[in-house]
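Handout, section B. The chain below has 222 residues.
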Amino acid sequence: MTRILVVDDEPQIVRALRINLKARGYDVDTAQNGAAALHLAAHHHPDLVVLDLGLPDMEGTEVIGGLRGWTDVPIIVLSGRADSTDKVAALDAGADDYVTKPFGVDELLARIRAVTRRGRPSDEARPVVTIGTHTVDLAERSISGDVRLTPTEWQLLEHLLRHPGKLITQRELLQEVWGPQYRTETNYLRQYMARLRRKLEEDPARPRHLLTEPGMGYRFRP
């Protein structure tokens, strides 16, 4: 059974999440501050963490850093901070996704399902991905429909496809594909994502799979 650690200092949110998650078969641990969260994580090894940023004893990004020192457990930030700076800071610290309060329980549950699917070895090993009418074979670096990609386009696409559903920050993509000296060249991403959409999306102006999260980054939606 999947064990989820909920970290939030708002009792009504903790109670609502505990009820909804347990009703769907999850085991739930809760913590109201960062120190308790790190202690519980170390002793109970959750399969996923839902984390608020505004904790009474430390910043949520510090909790993320503490967890990332020893585990790659998926972390979904659940926060009232809607500013893109806070979102990027959390994602750069190692969070896997970011949901803004107020939130819909159904949306949060969908994000939980997405990140837990990504954590399964069978998903990591699968090299074939479908985008609309195209089948992408990452191992063979081939795409059905006689689509041709440049080496840079392949690098960008592969990084997105190997993290389905995850929001990848602009900085991470630029560093992974072009190198650390290009971390501020966001125009590169806009140009190359536009090219990928023209080649792979049925309607490039209204993409369904290669999505932009304004001010933050990009996400591949299977």
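Note. DSSP finds nine helices and eleven strands in the chain. Compare this with the example in section A.
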